[in-house]
Amino acid sequence: MSLTQSTPKGTVDRARERDEADEANETPPEEVLALLNTEYTRPILEAIETEAKAARDIAEECNASRPTVYRRLNRLQKAGLVETGMVYDADGHHRTVFEATFEALSVDVTDDGLAVTVTTTGSDASSARSPQPRADVRDTGRD
User: Fold this and answer.
1) Which domain holds residue 10?
2) Which of 25, 61, 85, 101 could form a disulfide bond with 14, CB atoms 3.0-4.6 angstroms apart?
3) 97 touches 12 (CB < 8 A)
4) Residues in CB range of 134: below 8 A, 6 or more apart
5) 40-58 residues labelled b (16+ CB within 10 A) or e (exposed)
6) Is 122 domain-assigned?
7) 58 vs 65: CA distance, rounded Å
8) Is the pTM of this model over 0.85?
């Protein structure tokens, strides 16, 4: 299915389907936790929480370099926490925009390790990650 959204700057066309390859390549829970603890990740998610934005706008809002923003966005997209779309302006120009699909993260401690559940928008159900060996996630003090 495809979603088209009008914005003041143009139209966003966004595909919301995940194929089987994406399902097979789910990001391990310890990588999701580490990604969310990486510098600039949270400000990026906050910047695109309510509306799709271009990387240039995200970089300005987060006071980060564009290469840093693109690296984080690529990792967030791979983890299923961000979707991309295309904005088509009336003059024919287009650009990629990014929108957060991340809603919530739940971590449960079990006898087998950590069970991580990621809730995203646009999905039929939460993406539950089975219990994994304990993931050591350290706060680096960078926000």
Assistant:
1) 2-14+27-101
2) 85
3) yes
4) 113, 114
5) bbebbbebbeeebbbbebb
6) no
7) 9
8) no
